[in-house]
Each structure stands twice: as C-alpha cells, then as structure tokens.
Amino acid sequence: MTKAISVSGLHKSFGRTHALDGLDLEVETGEVHGFLGPNGAGKSTTIRVLLGLLRADAGAAQVLGRDPWADAVEAHRRIAYVPGDVTLWRNLSGGEVIDLYGRLRGGLDSRRRAELVERFELDPTRKGRTYSKGNRQKVALVAAFASDVDLLILDEPTSGLDPLMEEVFRRCVEEERERGRTVLLSSHILSEVEELCDRVSIIRKGRTVETGSLADLRHLTRTSVTAELAGPPNGLAGLPGVHHLDVRGHRVRLQVDTGRLDGVLRALGETGVRSLTSTPPTLEELFLRHYQADAAGTGAEATAR
Amino acid sequence: MTTTGTTTGSSATAATGSATAGTGTLLRFALRRDRVLVPVWVAVNALMVLSMPGTLRGLYGTAAERAGLMRQMETNSSLRALVGPVFGDSLGALTAWRVGVYAGALAAVTSLLIVVRHTRDEEESGRQEVVASGMVGRRAPLTAALLAAAVANAALALLVAAGLAGQGVAGALALGLGIAGVGMLFATTAAIVAQLTESARLARGLTAAVLGGAFVLRAAGDSAAGGDTSRAVGSGGGSSVLTWVSPLGWLENLRAFAGERWWVLLLLAGATAAQAAVAYALAGRRDLGMSFLPTRPGPAAGRLRTAGALAWRLQRGSVLGWSTGFLLAGLVYGGMTEGAAGLVGDNERAREIIERMGGQAGLTDAFVSAMIGMLGLVAALYVVASVLRMGGEETSGRAEPVLAGAVGRLRWAAGHLVIAFGGAALIMLLAGLGFAAGYGHDLGPILGACLVHLPAVWVVGGAAVLLHGLLPRAAVAAWGLAGAVLLLGWVGPALDVPRAVLDLSPYGHLPKLPGGGMSWPPVLTLLLVAGALVGLGLAGLRRRDLAA
To answer: What pTM was computed for the model?
Structure first.
C-alpha cells in the first residue's frame, strides 16, 4: 500500500528562524494520524508545505504520490484542508463558501453536505462576518467532510467548537476512517487524539521526536510504582531505567521506564511485597514529557545517570 | 490591582466611568500607529502648497502678466471649472487659486483614512473588542480618532500658514485654516459613515465618493458662475449655488489673500461640529461591531464554481462604483467642454495654461485632453486597489483554502488581474462614453483619448503585480507609486518639474489626444513594459511562499 504522506528530512527557514529542521512524517493510507507538538513546533509550517503553499528548502515530500509543490493542483483535487483559524469573506454566506470550497476540490456530495449542515447545526445563510469562531470552523469542516477527496488535512480543526460539536466532529472522523480515507489531524486535545488516532507523530522544534501507535509510545514512557515492602529495599537505585526513587523506611515510590518494569518488579519481589500500586503513564504525562523543552529533558536524563 | 491604578495617574482615575475615559491613551496609541504614513501625507501636501509661489513667480513674474491671467480666468468657464476662479492677482491669491482645492481634497483624504482606520477598521478586525474591555469609555475611540485627524490637520495648517506668511499673514492663516477645516469636515463625514457600514472598505469608499461628489460639484458650480461675464474683474461676484453646496467650494470662497471672508471658516467649523454631533449620536446608539446597515442573510447554497468567479464576486461592487463614478465624471466634464472654445476663442495665454495641465493644440482639444488626462490618472488608483485586493486575499489567509483546492496560483491570480486590467479599460471606456454624451459630439476621438491612457494605467498596475509577486508584504508601496504618478501628472507640469522627472511617470510618454497626433511607439513600448511587469510578477508569485 502506498503511503498517503511521506516526508523525510524537511527543512524550512524563515529568515533566521528554522521552522523545520529535518522533519520526517509517514502517514499510511487509510489511517487517522495524530500530528502533535507544542506551539511553534512547526506543525502548521509542515502542513503548508504539504499543501504546496510553502516551498521546502530541502528534503523530500510526497502527498498522495505527488510532489506537493510541482504538482499542487492535481494533488489538491484529492485533498480537503481545514485551517485552525478559518477566515471567511464577510459578504459571502456560509453556504456559498462550503459550495465554493467543495467545487475547488474534487466536488461535493450534496446529500452529505445537507446531512452535515444539520448535524453541525450550522445556519448556512449567514454572512461570513456574523459567524462566531466556532461557526466559521464548522463551515470549513462541513466543506471538508462533504468533499469527494482521499485525504483530509485538519490543522487544529476543533478550536472554538463546543463539546457537543466536538463529539459530532469525532464521529465524522470515525466515518471518514470507515470509508477508507486518510486523515492527518493536528490537535492539542489529548482525548481527541487518544480516541481517534491510529498512530501519532510528535514534533518539537521542527523535528520529529516520536512516532508510532499510542501503545508503542506508552511503552516508551514511565510507569509510576508505589510499594510497601516487607523489609528495606536494596539494589533499586542501581537498576536501569529507574527514576525519582524515593525510599522512606519500607515504603518505596519510583518511576520506571515501562520497558524496564520487569526488572523492578523482580527486585521488589525479592524483598517481599505487602502492597503494590502501579499506574501506567497517562497521556498527559506522555505529552508533557515530549513537549517540555530540551532543558527539562536533558535534566531528567542527567539525574537518572 | 491598585498598582496599575496609581501608575496610570490621577487624570485617568478621575476620568474612569466617563464616556471619554481612556481617550488620551488611545490617542497616543493612534499617533504611534500613524507615525510614518500621516507625516508623509501632511508633508507632501504642505510641500505642494509651499512650492507654488516660487513656481508662479517664474511663470507670471509681473503684475501685468498676473492681471492678464486673471482676466482670462474670469471669462472662461471651462478653465474655471478646471481650477476654480481667481480672486486676486497676488502670488498668494494665485497659490490659493491653483492648489487650494487640491490641498483641501488631499487633507480630506488623509483625514478620512485616519478616522476610518481608528474606528471601523478596529471594530471590523475585532481588535476594538479587547480595547473596549479596558478602561475605555464608549466615546473614547471616536474621540481619539477625530483628535488624531485634528493633530494631522493642525500640523498642516501650521505648515501652510508659516510657510506662506511671506505672502501675507492673514491670507496664509486663512488658507491654512481653510485646508485644515476641509480636512476636519471630511474627518467627521468619515466618522458618520463609519457608524453606518460594517466594513471599513465600504466606509472609505463611500466617504471618498462624497469627496469626489464635492469635487465635481465645485467644478460644475464654478463653470456655471462663468456664464455671466459682465462681472467686474477681481470682485468676482457671487459663486453659483452648486459651489456653495460643496465644502471644497467653501474653501475657494474663503478667498485667502484676496480680502479674506473669515466667516466661511465659521461655516466649516459649524458643519464639522454638526457632523461630529451626528456621529456621536449614532455611535452612542449602536452595539460594538454592529452598524445601522445590517448584514442580510445570504443564500444557503452557492453558485460560485471557480476562483475567477470568486474574484469577480469580491470585486464587482467596487467595479460598479468606479464605473458609475467615471461615467458621471465624464458626463459632467463633457457638459462643461462646450464653453471652452466659445468664450475666448483661441487665446494664446489660456491655451498655455491648459497646455501646462497636459493638453495641447486647439483650446477645446486641450481642455478635453486635460480632463481625460485627469481621469486617466485617477484610473491608476483603481488598478492599484484592484491588484492589491488580491494581495489582501493572500495576507488575510482567505486565499489559503482556495489555493489548497485544485486551483493553480496563476489561475487564481488571473481571476483578479482580468478584473484589474479589464476593469481599467471598462472605466476609461465609460468615461469616454459619458464625456462624448455630455459634449454631444466627437465620440471617436474622445474614446481614443480615453483608451490611449490604458497602457500607462496598466504599467502602474503591472508594477503593483510585480511588487505583490516579489514582496507581498511591501505591496502597499504600490499606493505610493500611484500617488507619485498622480502628483507628477497633476501639479508636475505647473511646478516646472524637469522633463527627466516627468518622464519617470508612464503618463509622461502618452501622445496628447485629441488634437496631438497619435504616435504608436511609446504606446506599444508601454504595453510591452506592462506585460513584462505582469509576467515577472506572476513568475515571482509562482515561485515564492504564500504569505500569511
């Protein structure tokens, strides 16, 4: 199966700012791929390169098997894009914009358009100026989901949507997956990512720092362990992958790289375990670990050594 | 919390709760935002006025020459329509005659831009919302905008009064205050219009249309007043009612340097105060961001299929406005032309004056040529506005989803450029049709005279396309280019600007039609230049990153 998006070693500078610094991204056809990273990490820049709006300085990119810069128009026939901040023409109605966007892509399924307008509770007769942020977002979402395309590129698409609409959005993305379409979803809403995405890529400072399924990523992070032991623990500090060890008498608290959990449990078992709680990493912890600046990251590694 | 209260000072604390609280802060902020553009506008305007006495001394050195000029102006209605009546033969009076109305119109443009920028523009963009949530009274934004315009106009009045004081202190003061008064009058006009519309673009357009109307009314009034040639030279008699309807006519009737009528300043002040009162009353009765001309619902389904259709949809209103304006201006100017030859015959001196305004050959032809030349210059503003509309689509982010569709950049740009370049042809054609209809004959030569301006208009448009293609953020500089071309065309010949400088403007190379012979080489060269500029601009657009 060909990849829907395949990017390697992408570089892009704006003057002296290096927005992208060797970014890699692989999105399989038919998957919902989460695209995550702190503000200013280069998510929107990547997306705009993928849309041929920006020209990469170096690196290779293919979208639906085409060069996004040289072959933009053909590629765009099969792509629907929703920006994070939708700006509309003040004197065009929402309905007019939906139809225009649809026609500028591969065309619009009018049955699905009507259904989506209903589900998103959008009044398509209002003019651009009178829409709230959430409603402007809905205009772009309806146009994207009703378009006849293979790939949806959604850049923080739910900003400004209320929780009910957010739920509608999630169901729409599920439906897209069922129909075999590919979705690249840039988002900060962790529950959204957890619920929708098959795989995620996390970027920071213009580089990809992690990519894989959420299960894979969890595996790479730490599990918190609290135990009450029969006797004083020994040898825990020397075990690989143990961090933030805190021993008070017979009580032990520590964090361990999930891959090394085995060794810790064995060591605890040797002493004798009276009670044990083990908490798998929450998604928040996972992201915080990746989002935090390098200083914090290297600091943690330094204390671990 | 208390620290912020004390740091803003006692005056701010005292003003809290009043409707104008925060005006001082907003005014300082407005002046800071305008620190480059407005001083440039004011300086250009002042320079235009202040350079006039020296130029006039060169042209009409002796009192006898000036008296001769006056006599001609008294008897020729078309000339008077073009530049207004002369009320005295001193250098000061001739300066006021020659540039007073233009300076007033320029001050009005500056003022309307300032006021709309700090009122409706702020509301439309949503920035006002955050400002209004601070310690800012309901009337503060409008007050600050009007004060910012007042600062600009006061500076202009000061420069003019001080610079012309050598020609007579009273006259200099009258002219300075008159020009500033017209500026403030249109500042308050803009303040009213900004309450009525939801879009800053429309507010600017409508106020500019009022100004254009005032300009045409002044011209029509002056030409009508000329029908009676029995009036004593110098005393000037009364102006037509039409002149008195136009604020630019008031400026003329202030008669700076020719027995100033100071009460005309009271007229300006009174009208300004009345308009300000209306603006405040309207502002006090509406919600933030809303207007008295509310947005109506639109269709639930759209028929726009292509980027070109979208471009037309966005620009059709402005094309319609410009078309109407040019057709009407053509009609009015055409109607005035009849008098050009009839009253003075082929007078050497009068012809020279008109030749200096860009005309040539027989007096009627010269008049027609000068009038059409003026419209041709103004068409440069249309083409720049239209090309920059494309730039605005890009920088506002609205072009992004369109270009993320199956639309190539060239196709997208082509939609706008057809409107910009074709629209320029359309408005010049309509101006010609209107002119010929008003004049009653000579349709062919008049249309030719209108269309021969197109290559020059297109060169200006091409320069705008090039700027947008290479440096999208600097594309607004195209306005500066259009302004320079306009200035060179309007006052350049009268100022005796060296030929080499005049030749920098594409308009400087056009054959003078009607009357002069058609010469193809410069026209074809200009067409090639325009084509090359557009081509380079589009090549740049294809290559560069999209601005956002």
So the answer is: 0.79
